[in-house]
Structures
1.
Amino acid sequence: MANFSSFQNILPDPNNQIGSAGQVTGTAGPGFASVSISSEQRTLRDRTNSGRILARAKTGHKWNIKIQYNPMTRADFEPVYNFLLHRRGALNPFFVSLPQYRTPQDSTFASFSASDSNKLQSKAVLVSGGATFLTMYKSGYSSANGTPQPGDLFTVDGANSNHKKAYMVTRVETPTDYLATSGAPSSNEVRVHFTPGLSRSVAQNDAFVFHNPLIKVIMTTDVQEYSLNTNNLYSFSLSLEEVQ
């Protein structure tokens, strides 16, 4: 039996295996029957006598995720359930790969961004936390390589290893389609708007992960319960919330 370099820290699914020792090779996890995701940004709101609305964010943003599994055999169920038991409720965060965000919507950009050497990078020397757009570039990149699309998910791969927030693209400005007052991005750039605002600053050349972005999560309950029917099939669902 060979040794291994790391434990699996991604919820087992068809693309993420786990072995009996916890290694990243072994048994593939089951697919999801359904996935729901919600964006939670709590705000404080007040209205003046004239009707003007005053609002500000009360807490940080987070993604909430619910996963429902089809009835599973024990062989399918145990890798998932024991992976979660090992996390001890909310004590130990882990990552989840959501199938709808695994690859970008633009198939040309999906092929381009699948390579680590082709990750788009931050153009500015420093983009402060709270920013809701930034310019991404890559030497040799052009619109012929495709672009991110509204609804794509991405994470930041940079010098700050604690920057684990997941962001969703809302607008993409290109050299041919752009806001006039902002000016056109250069031929090797795209201006990407996203939600929520940056939770941490981004430095020049920090890279953006559009291919298989992982969301850091914890379980929302300390009780992990399943049911077993007369056909020896396990029913199980999972509620998660994003953490940083």
2.
Amino acid sequence: MVEHLPGFDGSHLHEDRIEQSVGRIAESILGEARTRHMSAAYLPHRHETLEVLERLTWLMFPGFVGPRGLSTSELREHVDGVVRDIAARLVLQVSAALRYQENIARGAPDFAQRSYHCDRRAASIVEQYLARLPEVRRLLSLDVQAAYDGDPAAEHTDEIIFSYPGLRAVTIHRLAHELHRLEVPLLPRIMSEHAHSVTGIDIHPGARIGESFFIDHGTGVVIGATAVIGAHCRIYQGVTLGAKSFPKDERGRLKRGTKRHPTLEDHVIVYAGATILGGDTLIGAGSVISGGVFLTQSVPPGTVVRGPKVDVRTRTNPETPPANYAI
């Protein structure tokens, strides 16, 4: 319920000024095509996409997310209901994304035919996507175990599923990555940027990540679109796997589709604040990249990379008050 100030009903507003603002806002919308989308083509709905994502997590971690108290005898019925709900919602969003990509405008002469083609393609994509979910669940189970094995502060794998932002970001990434592999426009980025907003971890859905992956703490992690991460890797907060440069074509436009981000082979650890850049940068298996390192060159397997040693100086603080440190 909206609470109004006592005695205020809006009558003090000047109608002519409101009308002037309405006119100027409408003109602004019509004059700037980049920030509006009116009737040219369909768009997916962000809210519906995130509803689908939420229900997908019901299947990834049943009992932890979504309905509680499921029994073994009820499981198949529960899965059947959730999958059918996801399928119905997702096919609409995928079809809308495909129509957007093909710029199918309402009222066009071939509107019905092209829309039908997008609907059929969307149905096929959703069927393929659902078939991949058991493999996503397998990978996430290994990610949970990797987090438990890599964090002595974790008391149980349940704690990791409930509370670790790294696992949440990786969960959304693995779900978004499968849509990306199926060449679905927009929806994977909607999912990945949602994960970014709630965890502070930015993983492009195009990044390829192997099994048993663990992001500890996680805030400020950036993993670029063409990054490749092998199995049993671990990275910490503030790590960037980014691009060293952005090649341009003869007209000065950014080239897309090139390998811009580094590759980590199996069993690599990257500690907090390290930055690794470049599509041709390869971190060999079993290497350790120390915290704060800035790296733009490949290193062979089994390498420990450290930055310059920091010169730490201390002095007595004359303003330190007397204190009792007993707790």
3.
Amino acid sequence: MVKKSAQPVVRKARTDAVRNRERILEVAREAFTRSGASTSLDDIARQAGVGAGTLYRHFPTRDALIEAVYRNEVEKLAAAAKRYGETMGPLEALRAWMLLFIDHIAAKHIIVPVLNSVAGGASRIYEGSRDRMREAVEGLVRRAVQKGELRKDVDPHDLLRALVGVAHLTFDPEWKASARRLVDILIAGSRVDLRRGRG
């Protein structure tokens, strides 16, 4: 009698593990945003629908979970750049990603106190995430330049600096609305002017 392969069971177990991890990160992000770094990890596990053991298997410490939450958000932003680049026109993709980047900044402001609670401080966590953001926007700008829709002298880092600047240099609660308007201004000012042949 031929034994059935156990491979499907292994694959299902791996799929469940990935799903559990993603669910934990989602719930943890909401919990840390709402209640800060002191949020009960057992409560997070319960709200995620997993046992405490499952949570600690993925994230042995509170710091590990906090770091993973932030890095997961950064990876989502990087993945969005690739997705937008494959499914949208060059300028549409760049605009959509920049608007998403504004949402990322807003969420980061809220969770900063939590990030600061991690051993070594938030700056250590930010290391690497800056590179991921630069790579994302560089790819989108490069594509728009190659397609002749964006000027060749556009510095993708200047676009990020402008948006981050609006977030950090104002205490106006309307900063996010201002940043969204700035996205359209930046793109309009960076477009190739076909009438003047500026590229």
